[in-house]
Amino acid sequence: MTLLLLLVVSGCTGPVRSSGVYESKAANTARKTASAVATAELAVQAATHDRTFGRTAAQTLAETARDAGDVQGIFDSIQPPDRRSDQLRSQLDDLLQPAVSTLEDLRTAARRGDVESMARIAAPLEKLAGELQDFDEAHR
Amino acid sequence: MKNLVQVALGVLTAIGGFVDIGDIVASTATGARFGLALAWVLVVGTTGIMIFAEMAGRVAAISGRPVFDLVRERLGAGMGLANLLASFFITLLTLAAEIGGVALAIELATSVNYLLWVPLVGIVVWVVVWRLPFETMDNTFGLIGLALVVFLFAIWRLHPDWAGLAHSALHPTVPQGEGHPTYWYFAIALLGSAMSPYEVFFFSSGAVEQRWTRRDLIINRTNVLIGFPLGGLLALALMCTAAIVLQPQGVDPSHLSQAALPVSLAFGKLGLALALIGIFACTFGAALETCLSCGYTVAQYFGWQWGKFVKPAQAPRFHVVVLLSILAGTLLVLTTIDPIQLTEYSIVLAAAALPLTYLPVLLVANDRDYMGDKVNSGASNLLATVYLLLLLVVSVATIPLLVVTKAGG
Amino acid sequence: MQAAGRVLDAGLKLLDRQLIDSQGMLAGKVDDLELTPSEDDPKVLYVTAILAGPGALAGRLGGRLGHLLERVSNRLRDTAEDRPARVPFGVVKRIGSAVDLWVAKEHLETDRVEQWARQTIIAKLPGAGDAPQ
Amino acid sequence: MRLSELLGCEVVDERGRSAGKVHDVRMVQDGPPIGQFGASLRLIGLIVGRHAIGARFGYDRGAMKGPWLLRQLAGSGSRSGRYVDWELVRSVDPAGARIEIAGSVDDLSPPEPMP
User: Considering the entire predicted model, what is its pTM?
Assistant: First the structure.
């Protein structure tokens, strides 16, 4: 019985029929990606002000990169049911792609302990986070 | 009068011992998502565990009977066994979550994958339980766990909008864009994290382990009346720092690293070190409490000799159950199930199962044959009954909410 | 010795009560009672023993939980007989909120599984015999 | 015979009317001496009635203080119990979980509460 429950609760992704459901999944994806981006910003802020340990920053940034990658993977696996959803998908992908690649670059820099370049790499994150949050609010 | 050191030690241990991985995850997630709109649940939960633990401690001190011995006597063998299976499963789930929590804390300090630490954590937990005397074990990790007080100081250091915080706490409203079911699901998770049943199994068995008598009721009362609220304050501090730093940024925490961010921003490396040590000590201490509670519940139901106050050879089946529980908990984490997700399920199921063990303790605390003049006072009976009804409502609402909100997803 | 002529409800006062041996050690629970007819009048039943251990409990619970316990206890028990372990009622000293016994539990049949667990697992671990600090 | 085989048996009178299930068994200590215990316990009667949560919770004894709500919920169950003297029992069929007694269900009175 509990196994059945865990399956239901884990929100397995099946085909999506209505564009409404697709839209809410897109909003949810944006929200989760924004959360990972915001976490990365805080971690970089701590690292550049020497307020965290190198290993802790590396671990935090590794997690944000993995989270953003997973969320994008799940979203891309959902077939958009109609033309309007196609448009939504490409609009969101324009945000997800740079976010994921920036977080991956940050992870690499953090693992090397290269704090200086982390600040530079993280520069676009603030704008991205804002756009992702706007997307989430617009389509929730 | 028990000497002051004993009383003080009990209080400090109760503070450190109150917080575990469930409190850390629930308080941080709630603070980041709802600000302080659910702070009132921490007050309700802390009061609830105070009532439950005080009764269980008093019953154990006066009648020498720990919780699961009473569960079988008052509910009968059949209901008692069903109760045992449910409570044991949930305590085992919590044990696995605590072992996972310890490994995550080490991973956060070393950036080495937590799965590598899990077997080591399991072994060290067993060695500590097997070798260290009860009081040394309980006090050590409870005291180190006080390092979490850094979260309390971080609130001041982060210069929050005090008025805003107070308003959000005193006028709880569901934030725009959040569903009511999700709000109530988080409320139940928070209540389950504050009122963890294993803490009562451990607290009442600990009273027998330490051979409490009438004279120790003072310690029972101070531990509960001073230690638990301050423990609840630590959980509130975790919620506040998340509300101050994580909520405005839209961070929805699902890792320990996010919970530690506010402290490292406030106090830098020293603060982060204290937070990591505190998290490690609390989750490790809770792992000890949960694996022992697995042993206590089973041994007390079947009537086997149990406890660390006797030689291990004199309580073999108790120690076999503790050993197997640690093994099972460790293997469960090694299945790579996310420890944070595991924690969320353990605290929600704990909330649902609370009435099962709360009821028998309430009954015996009213029985003059067992308690003599130390039965519940009229006032405590009224409050205890209100909580029984609350817990029944919670246990009915838990599973539906779990499904509707996809575990708060 | 108990006050002769005393009346008690066995289900409430005996069943599921903790057995405590002469050394104060916990020796299992009263899982069931053995009733034996008297020789001269088979209708009259006397309590002749306490039945303790998963075997006895399994019989009493029945249903899924009972069978689960039955399988566990049969595998654990190392003797051939399938009847549950007995504590002769003669060793009962006092019936209070728990049941005190005149003898140490090592002398009772119900201690077999405890000894098995001690020898095969616990005794092999370092420090098993050390006194509690 | 085991005590558990009596518990839960349906008690039926001469006309087949049921008095409910056995949920406890009354004993008196006046049998032949047994070991160091003294006189052995002799079975003298059955406590029969709807499932008595009250008795198990302890509410049929005077020693329970409260809480009020639980006393009300549990209290009602226990008073409806009936006492069947062992002399009335005609036959005991543990396998069929059925006990037949002489006389009628209506003649049975509630058990006196134990100290």
Answer: 0.92
Residues from chain A that touch B245, judged by Cβ atoms under 8 A, are 42
**Alpha-carbon gap, residue B231 to B153, rounded angstroms:** 15
The Cα–Cα gap between B229 and B221 comes to 12
Phi-psi group of D97: left, alpha or beta (phi > 0 → left; psi -120 to 50 → alpha; rest → beta): left
pLDDT for C80: 52
**CATH label, D3-106, candidates 3.40.50.150, 2.40.10.220, 2.30.30.240, 2.30.110.10:** 2.30.30.240
Which of B85, B135, B305, B321 should one mutate to test binding to chain C, selecting the residue with the greatest count of C CBs within 10 A? B305
Cis peptide before C132 (omega within 30 of 0): no
Residue C57 near residue C117, CB atoms below 8 Å? no
Query: How many domains does one find in chain B?
Result: 1
Instruction: List the chains bordering chain A where 3 or more Cβ pairs fall under 8 Å.
Output: B
**Is B409 a domain residue?**
no
Give the closest of B72, B304, B369 to C28, CB-based.
Answer: B304
Find the CATH number of the domain harbouring B216.
1.20.1740.10
- The answer to whether B75 touches B89, Cβ cutoff 8 Å, is no
- Residues in chain D closer than 8 A to C45 (CB atoms): 1, 42-43, 86
Separation of alpha carbons C83 and C67, rounded Å: 15
Asked if residue C32 belongs to a domain, the reply is: yes
ipTM: 0.88
Residues of B with CB below 8 A from C21's CB?
A: none
B13 SS3 class: helix
Looking only at Cα atoms, what is the longest distance across chain B? 59
CA distance A90 to chain B (A): 23
Show the beta-strand stretches assigned E in A1-140: none
Cβ distance C12 to D56 under 8 Å?
A: yes
Q: Are strands D10-12 and D98-101 parallel, antiparallel or unpaired?
A: parallel
Residue B367 pairs with which residues in a beta bridge? D64
Residue B271 neighbours by CB distance under 10 Å: 22
The values of phi and psi at residue D90, to 5°, are -90, -50
Domain that holds residue C23: 10-124
Q: Which residues of C touch B313 (CB under 8 A)?
A: 118, 122-123, 128-129
Contact between residue A87 and residue B284 where contact means Cβ atoms under 8 Å apart: no
Q: Domain count for chain C, please give it.
A: 1
Q: Tally helices (H) and strands (E) across chain D.
A: 3, 6
Residue B53 belongs to some domain of the structure: yes
Report the alpha-carbon distance of residue B74 to residue B77 in Å, rounded.
Answer: 9
Domain membership of residue B385 (yes or no) is yes
Q: Which of B75, B366, B382 is closest, CB to CB, to D64? A: B366
- Write out the residue range of the structural domain in which residue B162 sits: 2-404
Task: Confirm whether C48 is domain-assigned.
Answer: yes
| C61 with B81: Cβ contact below 8 A | yes
CATH number of the domain to which C99 belongs = 2.30.30.240
Three-state SS at C118? helix
Identify the DSSP state of B246: I
Rounded CA separation A43/C77 (Å): 58
Asked if D95 is an interface residue toward chain C (Cβ–Cβ < 8 A), one would say: no
In this prediction, residue D78 carries a pLDDT of 47
Q: How confident is the prediction along chain C (133 residues), in pLDDT tens digits per residue?
A: 456 689 999 988 899 999 999 999 999 999 999 999 999 899 999 999 999 987 888 888 877 777 777 777 667 665 555 678 899 999 999 998 899 999 999 999 888 888 888 888 888 888 887 877 5
Q: What is the pLDDT of residue C67?
A: 74
Chain A closest-CA separation from residue B98 CA (Å): 20
- Pseudo-torsion of CA B146, B150, B156, B159, nearest 10°? -150
Residue segments in chain B with a per-residue pLDDT below the cut of 70: 1-2, 409
Q: How far is B122 from chain A (nearest CA, A)?
A: 22
